[in-house]
Amino acid sequence: MLFGAMGPCFILGWRVCAAAAAGPPAGLGNPAPMPADLVLVNGRVWTGVPGAAEFEAIAVSGARIDAVGSNEQIRPRVGPDTTVIDAAGRRVIPGITDSHTHFLSGGLGLSRLDLRPARNKTEFRDRVAAAVARMSPGAWLLGGRWTVDSWEDPESPTRYWIDDLTPGTPVFLERMDGHQALVNSVALKFGRIDAKGPPDPPGGEIVRDPETGEPTGILKDEAMDLVARRIPAPSVNHRCEALVAAMRHANTFGITCVHDMSQASDLPIFARVHQANMMTVRIAAYVSVEDWEGHIEKSKDFRPCDDWLWVCGLKGFMDGSLGSRTAYMRESFSDAASDAKYPRGMLLAMADPPEKFAEHVGAAAAAGLQPAIHAIGDEANHLLLNIYEGLGTKLRGAIRPRVEHAQHLLPDDIARFGRLGVFASMQPFHKADDGRYAGSALGPKRSATSYAFKALLDSGATLCFGSDWPVVSLNPFAGIATAVDARTLDGRIWFPEQSITREQALRAYTVTPALVAGREKDAGMLEPGKLADIAILSQDVLSIDTGRIAATTATHTIVGGRLVWQLPGSAASPTPQPARD
């Protein structure tokens, strides 16, 4: 077994996770010719510091940056044991933070069925059939990430698509947004779902044939759990290996930290991998639990760890998603795909009624736990901003509340983000994906204040960007490209009025994620005293044609002063190894 048994060790409360020492002031750092542990030269260093010059070289001592300057200023720091990395004129940036992942789920998904590339029903079925042929008898077929919105015939899948392919195999295949799943007849039996019942759970829907009442195999939001809870959990060792795979995948994009929307059961897995000295990505966890008050009480028993693993706060949900038409809107959706039963979408159970949810948010905030609340629909965002406004200025400033997605906004609510000090945690690549059909679902007026990157920045709000992986690709450069050029996956330019500059997008993946997590003294910029989390890029995303940005990768990824990823064939460097302070 790769990972032995050990107890959990994690941090609760973002205010306790920042390092006590801020390090030396910004500048070139230590000019004395003392040998550094690592020296990077010949780079085009974007530090992230507003108005700062572009540098060439960085010196690292231990886990932290010691100096930033020209090649001539930094080369004297090379000693006989110094690791030297030649950036060969490439762009160098602070390590990227993905501000919204489901990291362990993404790692598990790397070895599960991927239906996202399917372009029609035939390809969908072919992929299912091929996956079943490789499976052991009785095992569950898991994965999915399917979407039909860009198909020529966007008919929703049903169990009848796959029942003949999976007669003895229970199937649970999530839609790309994770807010609905396709299950087959075998899985429906596991969930005890048939024409007679059960009724829809609060905040969810069992989609049924309107004439017979038979379930179609599509389960939305809370209804998904009727079957999901019957799926055997992967082993601890399997989950640990999936986490390591997720970190390696992230490092190829220059990602050095993630804000993870974690399940409570993920935390011991993170702790095991941390204790095994296998961490190559820092994890700030936001724990997704229904019982906030109960979790606050339990948090008193937990103790801090270090800069590799900590819990910032709690994750909650206001509503569902646009693709599933469960996002909670002020007015009904505009298209035929809307659900007649829930024409405006729905509030999920934990947010209904909002007044009760406000009590839970207030209790968590008072305990120093940062709320990170999913809100997609314009009315869901409005209600959440009301909840945050009710916390008061002092408490909001202390806990830095987040809105996850902030996807569709009422015009008057845009300015409230900046005024209230609420962080908009957004995923720009969703615009490329959803923009193919969002216009028909919302109409032009509501589309104009969707994915409102520029309007939010102009109003004084702070954006931090992420992927929502595995909902979409973990690639941050695909997100940057979308934020800059507003191009959807079908090639259209959709509401470019909300586009922002490359540097603004890059800051939202580097500088502001550290700020929202309370780690601005330690991370987010390439300055002396900060952690040496650095990415060297294969292309200069600040100057190349926008159409090429998404193809960018990292040639080198450094975390805590150690090389954890190197693109094969790049400049000679030591073998990548796990990073530790």
Short description:
By secondary structure, the chain is α/β, with parallel strands linked by helices.
Describe the structure.
Helix content is 28%, strand content 20%. Strand 8 (113-114), helix 3 (121-133) and strand 9 (141-146) form a beta-alpha-beta unit. The protein is of the alpha/beta class and 581 residues long. Among the domains are: 103-228, Diaminopimelate Epimerase, Chain A, domain 1, CATH 3.10.310.70; 314-513, Metal-dependent hydrolases (TIM Barrel). The longest helix is centred in the middle third of the chain and has 16 residues, at 236-251. It is globular, with a radius of gyration of 24 Å. The strands form four sheets. The chain has an eight-stranded parallel beta sheet. It starts with 37 loop residues before the first strand and ends in a 15-residue tail after the last strand. Helix 6 (236-251) packs across helix 7, helix 10 packs parallel to helix 12 and helix 16 (476-485) crosses helix 17. Mean pLDDT is 89; it is low at 1-28 and 572-581. It has 18 helices and 23 strands.
